[in-house]
Design a protein that fits this description.
The protein has about 550 residues and is α+β, with helices and mostly antiparallel strands. Helices cover about 45% and strands about 10% of the residues. The structure holds protoporphyrin IX containing FE (HEM). The site of protoporphyrin IX containing FE has 22 residues, from α13 and α18.
Length: about 550
């Protein structure tokens, strides 16, 4: 069947011959894309250096971007500049099937069982980095978060050899690899410039170190639990193991994907809390209520921190670190009456979609309550997209959310913070490939005198105080109020749980909650063992649905 042909996507105004919109984009990528979307619409085309680009914004057009198959949209073409760093034949330099097999190999180290183990390492890293802080002082927030998140990532993913024995050499290698990320590498990856030469030397040295550790670990009987080990143990479907080049490339790929994305987001969480001190108090009250005086920051306790989670989600809505996602069109695509031609690039832009008033109420306002159970503004997965969507949604999303919440569960209980410059001067730096708060971003900290629950000592058990605490979002009292509330209507006796296979990546959170119902195998495939669930099993399955990081599960009542 001949595909239907529609009209060409509407063209955005402006630009120079061949160069197109290059200068407008370079001046401020976010502002440029927002202007194109506002003036031209949800599908808008323009050129840059002779390449035709189609910007897709809003939930319907984003669906084309996220739901198309790898045969229709090629992810690799957009990320070719990473090949000298990741290595030949790895991820974006591999054929689609191989690339997807490799991407899936990261999952076991990012799923629930592994996360429980990572949680102790993350908390330890936060404790270690603030061990010498004393009572008060100042930090450069972005730099602080970069250091903390590279420590956690190397600890959980690379393992203790890189974190402790080789930490200094690894810091140099990582620096040289990072400096090698340059748009020049799209077309001239081997240009003999000093940056690229240092990048290549660093990649060779990293592989030597990886090779030596593989040898050492193979001889060891006790195996560590980190991504490195899980890659050593991994096999392709045809039974072959990963060689040193592949292990090196996959490790560095995971670190690159998760580092600046997490550090910038973590920095913004603190900045937004300091711009609204009543929200900061509410968040601290929640932590105090959940953790009490000496409660452990653990996988389970962190999951209960709903106010902190909503603050983080709102940070990711207004400050998503990846502001443009790219694919090359391999087969003509249809969107409404338009045809997007093979050879074009398509772009999605999370921050532009996140600020559309038809998708988010009062979109410029920082309002974490938009994610409350009553409003659920993140329900539309094609609208709320800080982690992308569909088959290539960020597989580190649960790790990232957990890690950032754990960082603040430790920091905010111990310290108070304040901005050292006027609030309006803390803004996004859109000139960075991964957007971060603009430097310098100075913050002052001071040890909290009392981190007990503020309402506890006051004996806040009367209705008015409880209501006040709930209005402040305090779960300590919310739970008490729930217990006192009249019993809810009985739930239907029979229900079914269904999975959207296009969204499930195999994080296995469901299996952790309700192992009788869900099983995720070593290839990340979910089997629902008992789709029809009895009322008494409801609670566990509801937890499984709630904690699925991809919102891939749904309960259907009959
Ligand atoms: C992909 C965002 C942290 C691993 C992505 C994508 C986005 C994203 C938007 C989709 C890219 C695309 O479609 O082209 C973020 C944000 C993070 C974060 C905002 C932190 C706040 C992490 C962490 C890891 C990670 C901590 C691993 C430890 C990955 C991987 C992919 C990915 C492996 C590729 C998935 C695939 O193509 O199948 N991330 N990320 N990310 N991310 Fe993250």
């Amino acid at each position: 069947i001949k595909p239907q042909q529609g009209s060409a996507p509407p063209k955005a105004k402006g630009g120079l011959p061949w160069i197109g919109q290059m200068f407008n984009f370079a001046a401020n990528p976010y502002k440029f894309m927002e202007k194109v979307a506002t003036t031209t619409g949800e599908i808008a085309s323009f050129t840059m250096l002779g390449q035709n680009i189609v910007l897709l914004t809003g939930d319907e057009a984003s669906e084309v971007f996220y739901r198309s198959t790898d045969d229709q949209l090629d992810q690799s073409a957009a990320y070719k500049l990473m090949t000298p760093i990741f290595g030949p034949g790895i991820i974006f330099d591999a054929p689609n099937d191989r690339k997807n097999e490799q991407l899936k190999m990261l999952m076991p180290a990012l799923r629930m069982e592994a996360m429980r183990d990572h949680s102790h390492k993350i908390v330890q890293e936060v404790e270690d980095i603030i061990a010498n802080w004393g009572d008060s002082g100042e930090i450069e927030l972005v730099e602080f978060m970069k250091q903390l998140t590279i420590n956690t990532a190397s600890h959980c993913l690379l393992g203790r050899e890189f974190r402790y024995e080789l930490s200094e050499e690894f810091a140099h290698i990582y620096h040289d690899l990072e400096q090698g990320v340059n748009p020049l590498a799209y077309n001239f990856p081997n240009l003999p410039i000093p940056k690229f030469k240092r990048r290549d030397r660093a990649r060779v040295r990293l592989q030597e170190l990886v090779g030596a550790i593989v040898k050492k670990r193979t001889a060891q009987t006790e195996k560590p639990s980190d991504l490195f080990q899980s890659l050593i143990d991994m096999r392709y479907a045809d039974g072959t193991k990963l060689d040193d080049n592949e292990i090196t490339g996959m490790l560095i790929g995971a670190i690159f994907a998760g580092h600046h994305t997490s550090s910038g987001t973590a920095a913004w969480v603190l900045l937004e809390l300091l711009k609204d001190r009543s929200l900061l108090r509410k968040t601290q009250a929640e932590l105090d209520a959940i953790l009490g005086e000496n409660g452990e920051v653990s996988f389970n306790s962190v999951r209960e921190m709903n106010i902190l989670e909503n603050v983080l989600k709102e940070v990711l809505r207004l400050h998503p670190p990846l502001i443009v996602l790219m694919r090359k069109v391999s087969q003509d695509l249809q969107f409404k009456n338009y045809t997007i031609k093979a050879g074009d690039m398509v772009w999605a832009s999370p921050p532009v979609t996140h600020r559309l008033s038809r998708l988010f109420t009062n979109p410029l306002k920082f309002d974490p309550d938009r994610f409350s159970p009553e409003r659920k503004e993140d329900k539309n997965l094609m609208a709320y997209q800080p982690f992308g969507g569909g088959r290539h949604k960020c597989s580190g999303n649960a790790f990232a959310m957990f890690q950032i919440k754990a960082i603040f569960a430790v920091l905010l209980r111990r310290y108070d913070f304040e901005l050292m410059a006027p609030p309006e001067t803390y803004v996004d730096d859109y000139t960075q490939m991964i957007v971060q708060p603009k430097s310098p971003s100075k913050i002052r900290y001071r040890m909290r005198k009392d981190h007990a629950h503020p309402m506890r000592g006051a004996g806040a058990t009367d209705a008015a105080s409880v209501a006040e605490a709930i209005a402040g979002g305090c779960p300590f009292h919310a739970a008490a109020a729930k217990a006192a509330a009249p019993a809810e209507a009985p739930k239907p006796k029979v229900f079914k749980v269904v999975v959207d296979r296009g969204l499930c990546q195999g994080h296995a959170m469901c299996m952790g909650e309700a192992p009788e119902t869900f099983h995720v195998d070593s290839n990340n495939n979910l089997e629902i063992r008992k789709p029809e669930i009895k009322a008494e099993e409801m609670e566990k399955v509801e937890q499984a649905v709630k904690f699925c990081p991809n919102s891939a599960l749904k309960i259907v009542h009959e």
